[in-house]
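Protein modeling request. Please complete all fields; requests missing the sequence field cannot be processed.
Requester role: graduate student
Desired output: 3D structure, token encoding
Chains: 1
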Amino acid sequence: MTDNVEIINTPGTEEDAWQAWTRINAFPDAGIGDSPSVAIVAAHPDDEVLGAGGIMAVFAAAGARLRLIEVTDGEASHPDCDDRVSLASRRTEETAAALDALGVGEAVEVIRLGLPDSGLVACEDELAVKLSELTEDFSLCLAPWDWDGHPDHDAAGRAARRMHPRVLGYPIWLWHWAEPDDPRVPWDKAARFPLPDWAVERKRSAIGCFASQLEHRGGEHGPVLGEEMIAHFTRTAEVLMR
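Delivered output (242 residues):
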């Protein structure tokens, strides 16, 4: 598997290829529908919406206790940006709008750790300690998949798995760099969480709130979330890695 943040700027697998792969619809059910409380770990603002936004919407509607732990403020998403403080503030505002679009704004407790974007590998132990305290009372923890290919995602996923007994990882960049039946991916650990139509539509609206990730970032840096990337996250089910 890759461990290179530059995957963001390389051509990826098109969604049509994933849709043509029959196995993606045959993953077993994730079996998490009865969880009374869920802690969601996000390495960057928007990770939680992309990977588990539908799940969050469904659980909020069911009255589950939700806590969102935003590990960084996403201040490094625009390499040529000189005002990272303003960018972090913008991404925080986008997250709030996205949570409202999901219908979970009043149902989820948001905790921001303010750890350095693109620097989580160096502070993984510190993060693990924080996650131990913040996820302890929750029956389920959702975190970035720890082999996702982005160093921050991988570090956040590893830290969560070290500290909570029941963690499921949500892939983000996997859908970009991997291919159907890719031998680098442990597909036998994949599970799916089907989404009702209303949750898919809310998630689509929520993704649209992240304007900073949809725009061209200047110079040679296009949008983080291009059309093909967005297509991976508007499916009728979300995939989790056990």
